[in-house]
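Q: What changes when adenosine monophosphate is included in the input?
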Amino acid sequence: MSQATLTQFDQLALPEPILQAVEHAGYEAPSPIQAESIPPLLAGRDLLGQAQTGTGKTAAFSLPLLSRIDLGLRQPQILVLAPTRELALQVAEAMQTYARFLKGFHIVPIYGGQSMGTQLRQLERGCHVVVGTPGRLLDHLRRDSLDLSVLSAVVLDEADEMLRMGFLEDVETILQQTPDSRQVALFSATMSKPIKQIAQRYLQDPVEVKIKSKTATVSTVSQRYWEVAGLHKLDALTRILEVEDFDAMLVFVRTKNATTELTEKLEARGYACAMLSGDIKQAQREKTVERLKNGSLDIVVATDVAARGLDVERISHVVNYDVPYDTETYVHRIGRTGRAGREGHAILFVTPREKRMLRSIEKATRQPIEPMPIPTHTDIADRRVAQFKQRLSDTLEAQDLSFFEDLIGSYQQDHDTGLSEIAAALAFLLQQERPLVPSEQDLAADRQHSDPLEAGMERYRIAVGRAHGVRPKNIVGAIANEVDLESRYIGRIQLYDRYSTVDLPQGMPKATLKHLQQVEVCGRTLKLEAVPAVAVNTPKPRKLKSKKARSKPKRKGKRSRVSS
Ligand code: AMP
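A: The predicted holo structure follows.
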């Protein structure tokens, strides 16, 4: 890994509230482009950066420029020009998060398609940063509704895109209306002649930064990519985990927060999974690596920093869940597999906007990365059926089954049933926990987080699922029985293989929660715990009380909405 990536954020002379925001975002170390851009931009230098989406370029200019604004002055001090409304909004959102600890900070996005009135009002109220598309910005300049007189920095983001979309003239007109003293940062994925010409005309003695694309060989590693579409990355990953033959897998994400989140979700799906991030103490880290080596762990979710130097022969797969910042990071990541002459597999998730990184990697590694179809529902069913048959063959071969043969023989006699029927019933029982032909819902890894929740309700997870034979009515019955709540106030219930979720009115007293945690359904303790979910719809207020004496649940009123 390059020297640049070894820099720490706290070595970059960024002010405390900015560092705090970086910590809050879970960033562990600056990306190469950040390590190189932040110091000169902090020092007020102009900058010419060759970087595309995915390299961390937004933070590369936002962190230093936000460090230099005067919060007491409510006039635009930073102007960011972006080619599209989508990008403008994205940049505005990112800057807002980096400025989350700057008191009184205001940013206004300006783009075509939004009502002029709204924008005029926002600009009138005053702001520190304006992010916009050239056309609409120019409209405001013409109307005198945008005052650039105290502007200290201009950023041209994705300059090549702006050029391609025919904004060159607009961009130049805008630049000409900014004070001479302003600092300029120009970012572009490519450095074509017209881009260089703009740089020459408007940038003064710029520092040039470029992400490295050293060529490297990765011949023992087969490489595939999936373009994120239609499915969430998490769902795609769980499907890959089912169908792909892997020994151990290393999954790369960008932030510490993402390591925690993804590890929890994979654990909830029953995978032996642990995380490695900069927050993990050395002793714990060693334990995790040891467990990965000896096979008691199959999946490790890691950040680049934490996975540095990891050498475990068992790692057969590297998944780039979040794209790497540059080709060097990519090569380093996939170098964690294919060790000691073994075969390795690399899988890369790229969003459409990150496609360019994919091409850069192909160029740098001089190898094509093949598109990878995401396993379908049928692929998964086929795989489960094949595994099931294999288990049967293995058992027939390796086990002494005489006791069971007698048992089945006597059952057959007593019940006058065919052997194939008995075998079918046994097969059914055996696959209940993990259906051989799963429903789409069984495959939706993150369903409990994405299903909308009615306002006034809260979602809880309970440790009993379809595999334990639970029915929604058992859950309704148990809860209604234990707390003073008519069943109609019990909201949506979702059954999953090994757990379920139930929506209950907000504001459950601690004592009630504690009580419900210990209630048993189908012989299992509920272990009720709150899960985050998105709220929609109308309020449904109702307070829950702990109920000391047990009584029959009240069954009047409309039934709870139930789905499974
Ligand atoms: P960008 O290239 O600016 O579009 O950023 C791509 C993604 O990388 C965004 O989701 C950022 O939140 C994330 N990101 C930027 N810098 C870092 C960092 N130093 N560590 C982890 N994630 C980062």
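Observations recorded in class: Residues 186 and 247 are 45 Å apart (CA to CA).
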